Amino acid sequence: MKKIYVIRHCEAKGQPSGSSLTDKGFEQAKYLVDFFRHTKIDRMIVSPFLRAVQSVQPLSEEREIKIEMDERLSERILSTKDLPDWYEKLRETFNNLDVKFEGGESSQEAMNRIVSVAEEVNESENTIIVSHGNIITLLLKYYHNEFGFEDWKNLSNPDVFQINWTENGVEIKRVWKEDKPSN
To answer: The pTM is what?
Structure first.
């Protein structure tokens, strides 16, 4: 049975692709090693953004699992233009997946990117995917349409969801509870 752990990166210093983790974020990354201590992991596919890579680097080193970077896991660009009302614009993109702003991509386009990564994972592998809040929410929405803007607002850094493919379909479970995970 295919099992994917979707991780939102740890606390970071900013939004640009080169933004590093904060001191707290580096501590969270170490905690992810303990969090996954008793979990079989075969593969790690990660956004090329520095904060995503740094979030699982300690786990990668501990398990001796190579980090595979995949551009399709990069955060969604809402717009290349400054949007003072970006929050409302983002909400709108969850209500209409085809809405697109200047220089950005629609929710549907971003969803297609991340879903393609999840769908390519081998049926027998337990895989970690590390990405960013907006695009992770779109992945979860693809499998369970009720996920949306409010769920995005409630994500933490880090956050971990487990996706299982079963005979009855796809099951999604949040396994991280702020700084107190349950596993």
So the answer is: 0.93
